[in-house]
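Quick check before the chapter quiz. The format below is the same one you will see on the exam, so make sure you can read both the input and the output lines.
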Amino acid sequence: MEKGVLRSMLCFLFFFGIGQAQNALPLQLKDVYKKNIYEQKSFGPVRWMKDSKGYSTLETNKEIGGQNIVKYDARSGTRSVLVSANQLIPEGKNEPITISDYKWSLDNNKLLLFTNTRKVWRYHTRGDYWVLDLKTNKLVRLGQSLPTATLMFAKFSPEASKVAYVSELNIYSENLESHKIDQITKDGGGNIINGTFDWVYEEELNCRDGFRWSPDGKNIAYWQSDTKDVGTFYIINNVDSIYSKPIPLPYPKVGTELSTVKVGVVSVDGGATKWFKVPGDPKNNYLARMDFIPNSKEVMIQQLNRRQNTNKIWVGDIENMELTNIMTEKDEAFLDIHDDVRWLENEKYFTWSSERDGWLHLYKVSRDGKDIQPITKGDFDVVEINSIDPKGGYVYYIASPDNFTQRYLYRSRIDGKGDAERITPSTNSGQSSYQISNDAKWGIQVFQNAVTPPIYSLVSLPNHRQKRILEDNKELKDKFDALALNPKEFVKVNIGDVLLDAYMIKPKDFDASKTYPLLFYVYGEPAASTVQDNWAGGSLWDQYMAQKGYVVMSVDNRGTKTPRGNKWRKSIYGQIGILASEDQSKAAKEILKTYDFLDSSRVGIWGWSGGGQMTLNCMFKYPEIYSSGLAVSFVSDQRLYDATYQERYMGLLEDNAKGYHDGSPINFAQNLEGNLMIMHGTADDNVHYQSFEMLVNKLIKHNKMFNMMSYPMRAHRINERENTSYHLRETMEVFWEKNLPAGGE
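Here is the expected output.
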């Protein structure tokens, strides 16, 4: 191409780009939080078929409404309808049932459908289940003699002749030929919970489904929890009737009694439950995981002590109920529970994730626990196990050795030989996750980064060739691009002891010769991280504030959930709210020193949940840095939070009273100097409204002026009921406009 022509084209593109930016529509709160015009599309849910040659998914039936379950051949893309929405119209009804989730039987001949769902705390785990027999085309609702929308965690027996489920804290089994219902447990109700869990097990140990079929389909192993000694917290509903209604919630706070939990086995034909006598006080240990060992009459139980620094692995025989401790995992700080157990070589070995060498890696362990060999090796963390392919000899997993904000697919040999091999191509810079077929020859890739909403693709493995795009979210991408926003800039912040990851978003009309207010978004606790090269909904609130004239930043302090090794994650042990707020303050000082366009007299900070606590600690402990702060759904006193989370990261109260005191912002409320806004939902079952009121009381005591907003009968996310999210964000905006003037000066 001639230089003159090239120059003319470049000039055209340059001025065309300026014109686009000048004509770009502004980002508006109502579009995000009221009209939801920036919602992303997903794909699925996907289920790989038994033969791994194709996958099933849901598609709208345009003729009658409802959804078809369709199958796509992975290689050819050939589409076939496995289940039409017509087949999902119950007898006597005119419309097909709505599918919230679905599961195939092992032989792919029966389908279990979840519908009419209800939320149990965080997730929709209660509802109705239907079974469709593809051979007879018969559709039947399960549990017809039980109350509607009370069934939970329904599962086919191995041979798919029965389905077991939980209803109102008891376990039932239903014969799929006669539909006779047998009640397996009868003592559930009140303080006794069978087949599911209490609040803290669900929230902090990720335990919801609390029973397992034995491999031969003759027995069910299950958890039973007794909450009688757990303290009850009362949420008060003041808005739905003329009299207040207390809602009781068994909730173990720091240092108080836990549920008594045990694991038992019962015949599916009925009879008494046999209980494993796991050594140790059941009130001061967690039975965090339990599952059957394939092709056996044994279960593996993981017993975590109350301090959560010792995990004892037991194998229990369901016939004689004897237990053998095959392995014990320990850490000087705390242990995380992993769901990476896969059985290999005719159940002679199992896989196990551990940080024993300073990094999170996968190991191959003999059935007796005596032989432990590394599968993955190197100075990096295995973020997630995607597939273990014994036939091919590889484990596929997510890791990011070189950039802690990104995620890529790797594989390593199961025999531990050789180096890790990156599978995701370099062109996919950002984060990728995968749902891989059983034979590890195909994968559904979800690729995203800070400027790219999720793209769902079918790829062949291990060559990672894209076969077809399943959902590209192009409409959303076009809307986002039309806003002409400044993208996130990922930067490093050197605070002396360590190099921290951060991101920065500049105003649309940014002028480096001016100075702008700096607004930090913070989380900072071990449960998550904020500085990730992913879509994150486009970070539209951050972008909105940047559009108004703020430089928005976020920093991941030490202890956040990033793949930086054991030392990084465990550095926060015993000092939640102490080390992290110190890191945040050092980062703020370094950032203000580095960038001349930032106004050190206009520094704000805000966060939600753990980030709300961090905001308060920063405001109270470092008032010389932060002039304004906004804390949402926060913990003010760590003793008020649940025992399982807080004791994991802080140790027991009796061992670390000073740490609990120094990490709790309520104890430093007297130091408030700047502008403070606090917000909370009164029905928050996670971080109780009590935390809000206690801080209000303390601020009043010290005659500190502040702003506050309570949201009646809203939970931790403050998104229930009409107009809530929009109102909350407008309230936040008004606070920042008044207390942290925007724009360059």
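If your answer matched, good. Residues 3-23 form the longest helix (21 residues).
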